[in-house]
Write a structure and sequence with these properties.
Layout (H helix, E strand, L loop, with lengths): L10 H11 L3 E2 L11 H10 L14 H15 L5 H4 E4 L1 H13 L5 E6 L6 H6 L3 E6 L8 H7 L4 E7 L11 H13 L4 E5 L18 H4 L2 E6 H4 L8 E4 L2 H14 L5 H10 L8 H15 L6 E2 L7 E5 L8 H12 L1 E2 L1 E2 L12 E5 L4 H12 L2
Parallel strand pairs: 1-11, 3-4, 3-5, 5-6, 6-7
Antiparallel strand pairs: 2-8, 7-8, 9-10, 10-13, 12-13
Helix pairs in contact: 2-12, 3-12, 5-11, 13-15
The chain binds pyridoxal-5'-phosphate.
The site of pyridoxal-5'-phosphate (PLP) has 15 residues, from helix 5.
Length: 375
């Protein structure tokens, strides 16, 4: 019998495959299509001939771990100990999976907000634990009342994703106050904070779990170099967690991965000396604004986007099809691929909403927008 009977091929794979088959412009899966920073390609080309090709220590290449500590210090004014509080992972995906596998036990409950990215539920199920899906409000803010009601003595973990995929929503100070109140009542609950888009926020500044004292001893912070440096295919990220949690997480990591690929660790540790992560928000804000301007005269209604590189759009004025059918037709009939938002909900409810990824070069955005404006 399947351990994950309800899991099928992910919608990202389905849509990207269809986009390739029909030669459609792919605004579905979340990856950039512009060239890398030449400083990074130069570093990796040079390193290819150096001695950086063998196993690194299990938790990470020490110079990279020191650089991550510096990055967290400069971004969030938090001091972390590289040896005990950092783990370099094969992307955020592995950081999330490993943390859940290490910390969640049979019968535990894990709160997952709805809609949410698809990497949270399956690891919970593989632990014989129960995902408890709690709906966000209609404006995609967390509903702290319903989250509070969903918490019990069985709740082991709450997963938050900030900035949020697919909705582009970010958490504000009041959300953290509510979370603090909740955690005061439930001293054993830990938080997994997926912040892979931490450097991609726009008008409002990102508030990281790193900056909240009440979370430091009970939170796993998940980051992705793939998202921050336009290198999603390198599959490299890291987690930060207090030593008592990290000890358990490392026990699983050493058998799941042992150590993450060495050349990318070495390259990123050098690149962190020259790259300025604070420029990323402005870079993507310009893309968001450009994409929104290009779609201004279309029949799509664009939702607010405070962070991430995703734009949610309603097609309610265009079609009565459900969102999966609409996305398939968007590829076959109009040559643009997007992601149906219903796939981020546990009950797959259709709200005539789709997600576009605007992490694309201007030509791609212009060509896609032209097609979308013709609909
Ligand atoms: C919210 C969220 N978390 C995690 C990931 C996975 O990141 P990585 O590619 O570093 O595994 C993604 C990728 O799209 C994401 O959107």
């Amino acid at each position: 019998m399947s351990k994950l009977p309800n899991v099928t091929t992910s919608i990202f794979t389905v849509m990207s495959k269809m986009a390739a088959e029909y030669n459609a412009i792919n605004l579905s899966q979340g990856f950039p299509n512009f060239p890398l920073d030449e400083r990074l390609t130069d570093i990796i080309a040079r390193l290819a001939k150096e001695n950086v090709h063998q196993y690194t220590p299990m938790a990470g290449f020490p110079p990279l771990m020191r650089q991550i500590a510096k990055l967290v210090q400069s971004s969030y004014n938090r001091t972390i100990v590289p040896e005990t509080e950092i783990l370099v992972t094969a992307g955020a995906t592995q950081g999330i999976f490993t943390s859940i596998l290490a910390l969640v036990k049979t019968g535990d409950e894990v709160i997952i907000l709805d809609p949410s990215y698809d990497s949270y539920e399956s690891p919970v199920l593989l632990c014989n634990a129960k995902p408890i899906r709690v709906a966000l409000n209609d404006d995609y803010t967390p509903n702290w009342e319903t989250i509070k009601k969903a918490c019990s003595s069985k709740t082991k973990m709450i997963i938050i994703n900030n900035p949020h995929n697919p909705t582009g929503k970010i958490l504000n100070e009041d959300d953290f106050l509510q979370l603090e109140k909740l955690l005061l009542k439930h001293p054993d609950i830990i938080v997994l904070s997926d912040e892979v888009y931490e450097y991609i926020t726009f008008e409002e500044k990102h508030i990281s779990a790193h900056t909240k004292d009440f979370l430091l001893n009970r939170c796993i912070m998940v980051s992705s170099f793939g998202k921050s440096f336009h290198i999603t295919g390198w599959k490299i990220g890291y987690i930060v967690a207090p030593e008592h949690l990290m000890k358990e997480i490392k026990k699983v990591h050493q058998f799941l991965v042992f150590s993450v690929n060495s050349i990318s660790q070495a390259a990123i540790s050098e690149y962190l000396n020259v790259v300025d992560v604070n420029l990323l928000g402005k870079f993507y804000q310009e893309k968001r604004d450009y994409f929104q301007k290009l779609l201004q005269n279309s029949r799509f209604e664009l939702k607010p986007c405070e962070g991430t590189y995703f734009q949610v759009a309603s097609y309610a004025n265009i079609s009565k099809d459900d969102d999966i059918t609409f996305c398939k037709k968007l590829i076959t009939d109009h040559g643009v691929a997007a992601i149906p938002i219903s796939t981020f909900y546990s009950d797959h409810k259709d709200q005539k909403l789709i997600r576009f990824c605007f992490a694309k070069d201007d030509f791609t955005l212009e060509s896609a927008a032209k097609k979308l404006c013709d609909i």
